[in-house]
Design a protein that fits this description.
- By secondary structure, the protein is α+β, with helices and mostly antiparallel strands.
- The chain contains 9 helices and 7 strands; from the N terminus they run E-E-H-E-E-E-E-E-H-H-H-H-H-H-H-H.
- Strands 2-1-5-3-4 form a 5-stranded mixed β-sheet. A two-stranded antiparallel sheet has the order 6-7.
- The structure holds iron/sulfur cluster and FE2/S2 (inorganic) cluster.
């Protein structure tokens, strides 16, 4: 396997803390392998900064394999960068050209305040999830085995697709209204499609939408940028389903 290396100019958002005013700063990096992931490239920069006695750039990451939803960068104006159906940790440097200038910013949304540098606070998603993104199960010893309840294959597949949402927030960062509808609708759909989720369906959708509004996320105006930038391919169909669920719940 050939190993092409590249030299890059990074323009990175630096912000000391939530209260400070941030600004873009410029960092050159050299000898970056095209096989590195984007986060590995940032590791190289941070090692360089530490050697120079400077403060490394803070960025969120955990699994580094597209599962946890922690990595959250806006790269050259796109959430998770220029590739499709990948998170930032799965983005490879071969997507960039030698000599390129890359702009790296945190996700921007009122509901995701910047904590430091490229790290944003996405606990708003946790609070929405806590408001209703669960099923209550009787654990008294008389619990029915989930496999004993028949579920049509198509419904099971669609519920599974909705459940692949990793809560990364790219949908919010890509939306001109900073709407969280794709995320919330995925979480509503994964339950509403299954018999186990129908018991609390009305309460769930009402409470999750209420919390979404309280967190300061905007409304959906059907632009579809969220679906394009979502690393898990969550479909806009989920938003339509959530709107139907919400209407049904409001009329009862
Ligand atoms: S819907 Fe997609 S973009 Fe939004 S949080 Fe879930 S996985 Fe991320
Ligand atoms: S670090 Fe877990 S999805 Fe990127």
């Amino acid at each position: 396997m050939s190993d092409k290396t590249m030299n890059l100019t990074l323009k990175i958002w630096r912000q000391k803390d939530a209260k400070s005013k941030g600004k873009m700063e410029t960092y050159p990096v050299t000898g970056i392998s095209e096989h590195m992931s984007f986060l590995e490239m940032l590791d190289v920069l941070n090692e360089q900064l530490v050697v120079e006695g400077k403060e490394p750039v803070e960025f969120d990451h955990d699994c580094r394999e597209g599962i946890c939803g922690m990595c959250s960068l806006h790269i050259n104006g796109e959430a998770h960068g220029p590739d499709r159906r990948v998170t930032t940790c799965q983005l490879h440097m071969r997507m960039f050209k030698d000599g390129e200038t890359i702009y790296i910013e945190p996700f921007r949304a009122k509901g995701f305040p910047v904590v430091k540098d490229l790290v944003v606070d996405r606990s708003a998603f946790d609070r929405i999830q806590h408001a209703g993104g669960f099923v209550s199960v009787n654990t008294s010893g008389n619990t029915i085995d989930a496999n004993a309840i028949p579920v049509p294959k198509d419904d099971a597949d669609e519920a599974f697709n909705a459940a692949t949402c990793i809560g990364c927030g790219a949908c919010v960062a890509s939306c001109k209204n900073a709407s969280a509808m794709l995320f919330v609708s995925a979480k509503v759909s994964q339950f509403s499609l299954l018999p186990q989720g129908k018991v609390e369906a009305k309460d769930r959708v009402m409470k999750m939408v209420k919390q979404m509004d309280l967190e300061g996320f905007g409304n959906c105006t059907n632009t579809g940028a969220c679906e394009v930038e979502c690393p898990k391919g969550i479909s806009l169909d989920n938003i339509a389903r959530m709107n139907r669920e919400y209407l049904k719940a409001s009329l009862k």
